[in-house]
């Protein structure tokens, strides 16, 4: 097929063969549909890389594409929609059964489906779903199949609807970031545009409209995640200033971050009255992404009771009082009951950790009753491995990209251990004795646990606890990552003052018939020295927030009560210090590390760790991270800028604003000067626009001279005569158009006259009142 277009000005005929264009447009449209599909499948793939099932996901996507290709020529769209619906039904039935819904009630589980969908659409990230892997496998087939089926049948505009809906839903959950949203949106618009090109035989009559729609769609795709619902970030203030250990481990209610160099805040956070010292737990996290921890499941309102450990017979009570605004609820593990006014606005995670809906104010207090778990070594060794399914389903997760080397190294460390307890102690001892405590570290890329075990020489509690949790899981031992505070400073027989520098993270391992038991692989002696130095420095600097009235006169003895005693010492068969290690363990012999001095170790890349960056002194790695963040922001800004410019340009063309702007500018600016004859013609064209603005436009039937004569004749009697300079512009125009042409000087003179007239903004044919 071919078409012809004629140009009357030059009597030229251009023949365009559109057969090749149509074929190219078809392939480009299909390619865009595949890119759209890849944009949301990549988001799902990222989830399965964390929770498992990435191969199954890719297999399902491949089968869906193959089935759509085969059925495109065999079934009608309505039948294809039914096939997609059946596929989605099977997928979500599998999700429900994995989530514990009985197979016989799957078809009636509409309320749960609606509840899950609403939770996701209002900001619940997929990684916080308990059964995130099976949900992705159930979600993927329908949009992939239907989108590709419609594209294969040449219905490109319709094909972007299911894929766009899938991507939009993942934008709502917060899982689809800017790159995926932009790529998918661009591909969707491209599929529509190239499909239109194909159907029109090689001509897109509405290209400017498509560009405008593209820009608007991108803007919406980037803002649609701002919707009411459960936020992915903090619901209120996190503890500690940015850059402190507290702010890192309590980065958001549902997430706990892992960063590079951190600082310690000496300011008091809360006080505790308790008969027994303990670690004060504030967060429990079960899903490790490689560079942060995520807490799965949704919170529920506290109803007066919490789950008790299997063998708990004794309890310990505490009264916690906030000394500053507190967005957390510290408790001694394992809490079974809360008391106080705060409980009316308290939620509880599926892991049994309470949290206030609004921050506690200074002076507010609450009570906690916590169960005491039997942690005697002999009892834990005899606990066995008969773990409940609900425990193994949640607390054995490791990222799919964890290397076999990590597992091999873990096996070496636990080679001589016969029971889960002995393996836990072996891992705890190995980390404590082979890694140094330091707050000055560079955050590694990739899997932090893997990098810390195999490559790094030093780190702080986040690195130790993260690594031990993942090592236990590699050995099939359910474990979870816990954040909170160590006991703090004992200022009375039963009173403890807890500061920001006591922020800590540790590990809890599960033992059948006992429950969760604490392990702390972070070297205690070095950590205590660093914290003592930091508190002494704060007191010397007169920091009033570093003490309460009760603690101000209490000397610092360098010991943290929470690290000197361990409940796993009680049957006489073993003796342990505060970390579960033997007293003579070489890990107790540590060189003190000052958190304000640079270290010469594998985590520092330069002898001078401080570098000036935009007027701020930062660590070398922090400078690189700032540069990386700035680079990412710059790339995103450039992409958004390009989208905005395309949309504005297309919108201006669509509305004629661009042409009007060009004409307006042309009145006052002649532009580049080249050929004298053409410049003379352009000068008269500018004069025409100036006269049209003051009087009337030139008619088609009028010559230039007839136009000026008509305007002069129409002027009222008694008005000043016509500006004589107009004749010079007219004569230059006539010679350039109909005569022998003009030279450079004559053209420049005509241009100068028009410039003066435009600048003066005065009537040139006669003044009008």
UniProtKB/TrEMBL annotation:
A Gene Ontology molecular function term for this protein is: peptidase activity
Residues that span the membrane, as ranges: 27-45, 57-75, 132-151, 156-174, 180-197, 209-227
The GO annotation for biological process reads: proteolysis
* Keyword annotations: Hydrolase, Membrane, Protease, Transmembrane, Transmembrane helix
Q: Where is this region: Disordered?
A: 345-366, 390-415, 538-623
- The Transglutaminase-like domain, residue ranges: 453-523
Stretches with biased composition (Acidic residues): 562-574, 594-610
Amino acid composition bias (Polar residues), ranges on this chain: 394-407
This chain belongs to the protein called Transglutaminase domain-containing protein
Gene source species: Natrinema pellirubrum (strain DSM 15624 / CIP 106293 / JCM 10476 / NCIMB 786 / 157)
């Amino acid at each position: 097929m071919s078409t012809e277009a004629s140009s009357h000005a030059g009597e030229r005929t251009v023949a365009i063969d559109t057969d090749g264009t149509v074929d190219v447009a078809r392939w480009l449209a299909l390619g865009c549909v595949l890119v759209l599909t890849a944009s949301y499948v990549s988001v799902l793939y990222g989830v399965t890389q964390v929770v498992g099932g990435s191969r199954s996901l890719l297999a399902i996507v491949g089968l869906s594409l193959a089935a759509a290709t085969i059925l495109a020529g065999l079934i009608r769209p309505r039948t294809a929609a039914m096939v997609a619906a059946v596929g989605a039904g099977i997928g979500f039935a599998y999700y429900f059964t994995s989530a514990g819904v009985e197979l016989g009630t799957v078809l009636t589980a509409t309320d749960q489906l609606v509840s899950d969908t609403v939770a996701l659409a209002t900001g619940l990230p997929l990684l916080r779903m308990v059964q995130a892997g099976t949900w992705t496998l159930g979600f993927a087939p329908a949009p992939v199949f239907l989108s590709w089926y419609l594209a294969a049948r040449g219905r490109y505009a319709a094909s972007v609807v299911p894929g766009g809906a899938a991507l939009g839903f993942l934008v709502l959950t917060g899982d689809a970031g800017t790159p995926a949203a932009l790529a998918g949106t661009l591909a969707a618009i491209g599929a529509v545009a190239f499909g239109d090109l194909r159907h029109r035989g090689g001509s897109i009559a509405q290209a400017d409209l498509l560009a405008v729609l593209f820009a608007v769609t991108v803007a919406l795709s980037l803002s649609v995640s701002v919707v009411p619902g459960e936020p992915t970030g903090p619901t209120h203030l996190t503890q500690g200033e940015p850059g402190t250990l507290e702010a890192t481990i309590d980065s958001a209610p549902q997430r706990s971050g892992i960063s590079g160099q951190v600082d310690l805040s000496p300011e008091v956070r809360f006080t505790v009255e308790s008969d027994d010292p303990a670690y004060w737990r504030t967060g429990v996290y079960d899903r490790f992404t490689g560079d942060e921890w995520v807490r799965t499941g949704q919170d529920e309102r506290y109803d007066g009771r919490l789950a008790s450990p299997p063998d708990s017979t004794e309890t310990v009570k505490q009264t916690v009082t906030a000394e500053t605004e507190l967005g957390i609820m510290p408790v001694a593990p394992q809490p079974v009951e809360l008391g106080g006014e705060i409980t009316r606005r308290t939620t509880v995670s599926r892991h049994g950790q309470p949290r206030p809906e609004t921050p506690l104010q200074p002076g507010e207090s609450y009570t906690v009753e916590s169960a005491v778990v039997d942690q005697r070594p002999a009892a834990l060794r005899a606990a066995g491995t008969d773990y409940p399914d609900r425990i193994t389903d949640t607390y054995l997760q490791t990222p799919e990209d964890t290397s076999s080397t990590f597992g091999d190294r873990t096996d070496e460390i636990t080679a001589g251990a016969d029971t889960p307890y002995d393996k836990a102690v072996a891992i705890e001892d190995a980390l404590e004795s082979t890694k140094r405590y330091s707050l000055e570290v560079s955050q590694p890329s990739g899997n932090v646990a893997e990098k810390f075990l195999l490559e790094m020489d030093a780190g702080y509690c986040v690195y130790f606890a993260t690594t031990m949790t993942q090592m236990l899981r590699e050995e099939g031992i359910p474990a979870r990552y816990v954040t909170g505070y160590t006991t703090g400073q004992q200022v009375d027989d039963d009173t403890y003052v807890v500061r920001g520098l006591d922020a800590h993270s540790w590990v809890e391992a599960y033992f059948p018939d006992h429950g969760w038991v604490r392990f702390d692989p972070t070297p205690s002696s070095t950590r205590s020295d660093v914290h003592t130095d930091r508190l002494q420095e704060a007191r010397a600097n007169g920091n009033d927030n570093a003490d309460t009235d009760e603690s101000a006169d209490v000397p610092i003895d360098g010991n943290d009560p929470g690290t000197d005693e361990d409940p796993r010492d009680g049957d006489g068969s073993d003796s342990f210090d505060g970390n579960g290690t033997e007293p003579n363990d070489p890990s107790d012999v540590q060189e003190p590390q000052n958190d304000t001095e640079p270290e010469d170790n594998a985590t520092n890349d330069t002898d001078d760790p401080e570098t000036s960056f935009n007027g701020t002194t930062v660590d070398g790695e922090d400078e690189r991270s700032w540069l990386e963040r700035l680079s990412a922001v710059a790339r995103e800004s450039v992409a958004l800028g390009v989208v905005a410019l395309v949309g504005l340009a297309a919108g201006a063309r669509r509305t004629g604003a661009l042409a009007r702007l060009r004409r307006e500018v042309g009145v006052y600016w002649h532009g580049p000067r080249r050929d004298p004859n053409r410049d003379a013609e352009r000068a008269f064209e500018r004069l025409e626009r100036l006269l049209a603005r003051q009087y009337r436009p030139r008619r088609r039937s009028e010559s230039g001279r007839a136009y000026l004569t008509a305007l002069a004749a129409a002027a009222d009697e008694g008005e000043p005569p016509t500006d004589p300079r107009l004749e010079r512009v007219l004569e230059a125009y006539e010679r350039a158009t109909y005569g022998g042409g003009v030279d450079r000087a004559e053209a420049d003179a005509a241009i100068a006259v028009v410039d003066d007239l435009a600048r003066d903004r005065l009537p040139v044919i006669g003044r009008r009142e």
